[in-house]
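Revision sheet: structure tokens.
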Amino acid sequence: MAIIPYAHEDPQDDRAAAVVERLPEPRINLFTMLANAPALAGPALRLGEAILTRSDLPAPLRELAILQSARTTGTEYEWVQHEAIARLVGVADEKIAAVRDGDLAALDAGEAAAVRLVDGCIGTGTPDEDLVREVAGTHGRNGLIELLLVAGYYAMLGGVMRAVRIDVDSVVEKGMIDADRLR
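Predicted:
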């Protein structure tokens, strides 16, 4: 159970209530928790939407990177959401299991490098220089920087989720996912 109220349960001010009112229905716990920070909720959610719908990364690669972020940070909420999304965008179960178990043999070389990059970025804060070059060579500079942004964004969200003990719900079960937009 979350250790502070979600903004829709007990908005602290009119701005938080206004953010909640603008959130699409149905609402997931993450969105209503972020509404407690009304000045930052919108920008944070817009960056997440851009990552999910406007990134140049192939959707399966993006989801493997997000799953690695969830694994590295130990964020159950993030894992639950993105395991379901990964399946929706075509990530095979054996690849999801590979990230979950830390055995990357089921991933191709480009996927494995991207997952190791995310782990290094979050785990030690500085991924190995050769790995950065490898990812840039495989996925281009654009892909490299987008993967680093994915790592940072989902590590940041994971910190919020873990700190406030956000309750796990599901974007898929709530019918919030448009699989075509995520591809």
